[in-house]
Design a protein that fits this description.
Elements: E1 2-8, H1 15-32, E2 36-43, E3 48-54, H2 57-64, H3 67-77, E4 86-91
Antiparallel strand pairs: 1-3, 1-4, 2-3
Length: 95
Amino acid sequence: MAYLEITLKIDGDDRPAAAGVYQKYKQPFLDTVAGATSKELLVRDEDVQVLHGFATVQDAESYLSSELFTKDVVTGLSPLLKADPEVRIYETPAL
């Protein structure tokens, strides 16, 4: 299992719009992205994070170059961002 964490700097007033982008693309993400298992929106005072679950690290990496991400999600969020997003991929250890 792998996780893709994207941290976004978004002003408080713009967070409802960012949540709208999240809601709009959550189900298409789960329905169409290879290996997608979950997607969660995490809100903190200092930023917003989107945590995506995948079957493999390769699935997470592939999503970052997918049309859904590059054309739909990025286009929807770009006007709201105050800094470049931080993108991290984590892999859970096989036990």
